Every structure is written in structure tokens, then in C-alpha cells.
Automatic annotation (TrEMBL):
GO terms for molecular function: actin filament binding. PANTHER family: F-ACTIN-CAPPING PROTEIN SUBUNIT ALPHA (PTHR10653:SF0). This is F-actin-capping protein subunit alpha. One of its GO terms (cellular component) is F-actin capping protein complex. Keywords: Actin capping, Actin-binding. GO terms for biological process: actin cytoskeleton organization; barbed-end actin filament capping. InterPro entries: CapZ_alpha (IPR002189), CapZ_alpha/beta (IPR037282), CapZ_alpha/beta_2 (IPR042276), CapZ_alpha_1 (IPR042489), F-actin_cap_asu_CS (IPR017865). The gene is CAP1_2.
Length: 280
């Protein structure tokens, strides 16, 4: 049977699957590997953009606008079109380059004043919450009619220790029914002398007793306390699970350090041994 030569489009379609599975903080590395395999930049940029767009939105990628200090989350909730997103906090609309992951051309954006008081109250509360629990995190609060959406993402990259991780949580609030639904996802990639990805997610259904119409600030405080309790419970469950893994699966994957708590330098030991052998 003769070999079938794949077209450039078929190769990029296969490569897109690898791109969508990129671990946190490693999408550029995967893209560069794909680029070397495809060896056709024009075709790659033309066909790979939809996969990058899907990845950035699904992973809640963050970007910093020119002349701002806070990170903006790229999501389907603040999306205007394929390339433009809204930053509710700075009241700007901007263009996002999915390939280079950069923000350009920020323009003033008109907000819905009737809902802005509530959005500002929740945004202020979530910023304090994120600063306390996710020091390197970012958040976004979006309101669309009677639904409020709250996003939190926190990335922790430690390539020197061969691991990267990402936390994502999405909370939607039915303002009329005061019902809260959420999902939280954790992805950790460990790659020292191996390749392990740990995926975990949990769904939530909660209630918020405060009335957003009566006192937005009080509603925001109650909402974040409710969300905080749920996320803390999930954090503790994850810590317990990963603790068990480190005592079972991980212990079989990685040799424990000696009592010096440092890796053995085998080259140095060999150099010590050689003179002894030669003197004999």
C-alpha cells in the first residue's frame, strides 16, 4: 500500500488539536513546534487562527491594555466580534491579536448606566477577593440584562521547577431569581522527566439571599462570601486529592531526594572516585 501524502490543510487540522490541548503558559511553545513541522508560515497563520481564538477564549487568556495596569480576561462574555473585546473596568473596547496575544487600538466604550452601579459594586468586591486569594489572578464582571457573570482566572508558571498551572472559575447570577451557578476548573502540567496533566473541575448551584436592587454593595459582599465558601471547599478537596497522589502515584514517578534535600551530582561523585581508582 502506498503512503498517502497529507495536504497542508490536513496537517494544520491535526496540529490544531495539539494546540487546543496546550498546557497553561505553553501555547507559544506548542505553536513554535507546530510551525517547525508545517514549515509554511503563510498557510499556518491562515488556518491556525480559529484554533488560537478558541483556545484563548476557553482558557480565559489575559491581556493588558496600553496605559492600564490591570489584566483583562478574554472571554465569550465580553466579546464583540472575532477580534474585539470590551474591558468593562476601563470602559474601553480593544482589538485582540489571537496569534500574538496582544491588545491594540483601545477606544472608549459606552456602558449601560442602569446596570453600572451594580456592576461596579460587584467588580470592587471581586477585586478585593482576588487580591486576597489569587495574588496573581485577574477578574471580570459583565452584566447582560438580568444575568451577571463573574470570571476569575489565576495562572502560576514555574518552568524552573517543571510545572505550570491555571485556575478558572465562571459564575453566572440570575439577578431576578438570585440563583448562582458556577464552574471551577484546575489544570496543572508537570513535565520533569515525564509528561503529566492533572485536570479537575466542579459545578456549583448556590443561592444569594441579598437583593441586588435594594443595596448593590451589600449584594456584592454576600455574593462574594457565597462564592468564596464554595471555592474554598473545592480548594481543600483538591489539596487533599493531590496530597494523596503525591504519596502514591507521584512517589513512583520521581525518586525522593536524599537527606541533604538536593539532587545528587553524579559527575562530581565520579570525579571523586577516579583519583582513588587510579592510585590503586
Amino acid at each position: 500500500m502506498s503512503d498517502v501524502e497529507l495536504s497542508i490543510e490536513d496537517k494544520i487540522k491535526i496540529a490544531s488539536g495539539f494546540l487546543l490541548s496546550s498546557p497553561p503558559g505553553e501555547v507559544n511553545d506548542v505553536f513554535n513546534d507546530i510551525r517547525g513541522i508545517i514549515n509554511d508560515d503563510a498557510a499556518l497563520q491562515q488556518h491556525i487562527t480559529p484554533a488560537l481564538e478558541e483556545y484563548n477564549i476557553d482558557q480565559l487568556q489575559t491581556v493588558t491594555l496600553p496605559e492600564t495596569e490591570h489584566a483583562v480576561i478574554i472571554s465569550k462574555y465580553n466579546r464583540v466580534d472575532a477580534d474585539h473585546f470590551v474591558d468593562p473596568r476601563s470602559k474601553q473596547i480593544f482589538k485582540f491579536d489571537h496569534l500574538r496575544q496582544t491588545a491594540t487600538d483601545p477606544q472608549p466604550h459606552t456602558v449601560e448606566e442602569a446596570q453600572e452601579e451594580l456592576r461596579l459594586a460587584v467588580d470592587d468586591a471581586v477585586q478585593k477577593y482576588v487580591a486576597e486569594h489569587y495574588p496573581e489572578g485577574a477578574s471580570l464582571v459583565h452584566i447582560d440584562e438580568q444575568q451577571l457573570t463573574l470570571l476569575v482566572v489565576s495562572n502560576k508558571y514555574s518552568p524552573s521547577n517543571f510545572w505550570n498551572g491555571r485556575w478558572r472559575s465562571v459564575w453566572t447570577v440570575d439577578l431576578a431569581a438570585r440563583q448562582v451557578k458556577g464552574t471551577a476548573k484546575v489544570l496543572v502540567h508537570y513535565y520533569e522527566q515525564g509528561n503529566i496533566q492533572l485536570n479537575s473541575d466542579r459545578s456549583f448551584e448556590l443561592e444569594c439571599d441579598a437583593n441586588p436592587a435594594e443595596d448593590p454593595a451589600a449584594f456584592a459582599r454576600v455574593l462574594l462570601r457565597t462564592i468564596g465558601r464554595a471555592e474554598k471547599e473545592y480548594h481543600l478537596a483538591i489539596n487533599d486529592t493531590y496530597g494523596q497522589l503525591s504519596e502514591s502515584i507521584f512517589k513512583g514517578l520521581r525518586r525522593n531526594l536524599p537527606v541533604t534535600r538536593s539532587k545528587i551530582d553524579w559527575d562530581k561523585i565520579l570525579n571523586y572516585k577516579l583519583p582513588t581508582e587510579l592510585s590503586k
